[in-house]
C-alpha cells in the first residue's frame, strides 16, 4: 500500500519513481538524531550504514520496516550523482553518521543475536497472483504470531523485543514445495518457531498446497536458514 509521506523539508513525495533524493542535506540532518536502535537493527540485517542512516532520516525514525521499504524503493536514488559527471560521495551529515553508527559496525555480530525478525518464504513455483500472495503471507503472519503467543513462556521475551524494534518482516522467494519443506526442517533443527501455510484450494492453487513458510527468531539464527534467499 502506497503511503503519502512528506519529505523532511515539507515537499511531497507521492511518486517515489520521480523523486530524486538529495543525499547532501547537512543543514536539515544536523538538527536530527538517528534512532540508534533502528540503525543497529538495519546494519545487523546487512544494510549498508549509509543507506540505513539515509532511510531513517527520510522516514523520520518511523520504524525499521519503513526504513527497509524506503531503501528498497530508492536503491537507484542512493547512487544518484550530484551532476552528470561526478558521483555524490558525501552522505547527509557524514560526521554524525560515522559517530552514531561506529558502535554498530564494530558490534554487528554481538548485537545481531539480540535482534529478531519474521521471514516469509513464498513458493514461487505456484505462480500465485499478487493478491493471493498477500493473503497467504497474512495467513503465515497470523499463524506464526498465534504460535508465539501460545508459548509465551518460551518466546515472550523475544516477541516483546521484536515488537519494540519495529516488528521486522521480510518476504523472500522460495523455489518450490520441496524447498519450503527443506527450509522448515532446517528451522526446526535450529529450534526456530515456524508456520507453514497449506492453502484451502478455493482459488488459484490446489488444496493442501504449501504456499508460504513463516519463520521467527534472532537475525543470526534465521539467516542460517534463509540468508541466501532473494527478496520476493
From TrEMBL:
One of its GO terms (cellular component) is cytosol. The keyword Hydrolase applies. It is an enzyme of class 3 (hydrolase). PROSITE patterns: UBA. Residues 33-74 form the UBA domain. Keywords: Hydrolase. Residues 1-29, 79-103 are annotated as: Disordered. It catalyses: an N-acyl-L-alpha-aminoacyl-tRNA + H2O = an N-acyl-L-amino acid + a tRNA + H(+). The keyword Hydrolase applies. It comes from Sarcoptes scabiei (Itch mite). Its EC number is 3.1.1.29. Transmembrane segments: none annotated. It comes from the Eukaryota. One of its GO terms (molecular function) is peptidyl-tRNA hydrolase activity. This is peptidyl-tRNA hydrolase. Belongs to the PTH2 family.
Amino acid at each position: 500500500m502506497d503511503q503519502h509521506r512528506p519529505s523532511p523539508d515539507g515537499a511531497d513525495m507521492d511518486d517515489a519513481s520521480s523523486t530524486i533524493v538529495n543525499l547532501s542535506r547537512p543543514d536539515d540532518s544536523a538538527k536530527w538524531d538517528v534512532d540508534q536502535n533502528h540503525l543497529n537493527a538495519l546494519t545487523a540485517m546487512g544494510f549498508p550504514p549509509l543507506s540505513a542512516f539515509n532511510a531513517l532520516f527520510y522516514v523520520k525514525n518511523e520504524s525499521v520496516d519503513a526504513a527497509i521499504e524506503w531503501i528498497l524503493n530508492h536503491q537507484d536514488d542512493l547512487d544518484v550523482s550530484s551532476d552528470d559527471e561526478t558521483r555524490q560521495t558525501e552522505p547527509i551529515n557524514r560526521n554524525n553518521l560515522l559517530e552514531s553508527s561506529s558502535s554498530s559496525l564494530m558490534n554487528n555480530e554481538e548485537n545481531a543475536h539480540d535482534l529478531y525478525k519474521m521471514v516469509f518464504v513464498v513458493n514461487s513455483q505456484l505462480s500465485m497472483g499478487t493478491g493471493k500472495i498477500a493473503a497467504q503471507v497474512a495467513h503465515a503472519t497470523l499463524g506464526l504470531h498465534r504460535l508465539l503467543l501460545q508459548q509465551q513462556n518460551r518466546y515472550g521475551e523475544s516477541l516483546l523485543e521484536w515488537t519494540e524494534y519495529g516488528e521486522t518482516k521480510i518476504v523472500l522467494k522460495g523455489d518450490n514445495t520441496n524447498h519450503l519443506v527443506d527450509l522448515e526442517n532446517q528451522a526446526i533443527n535450529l529450534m526456530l518457531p515456524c508456520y507453514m501455510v497449506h492453502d484451502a484450494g478455493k482459488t488459484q492453487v490446489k488444496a493442501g498446497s504449501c504456499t508460504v513458510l513463516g519463520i521467527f527468531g534472532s537475525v543470526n539464527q534465521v539467516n542460517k536458514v534463509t540468508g541466501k534467499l532473494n527478496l520476493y
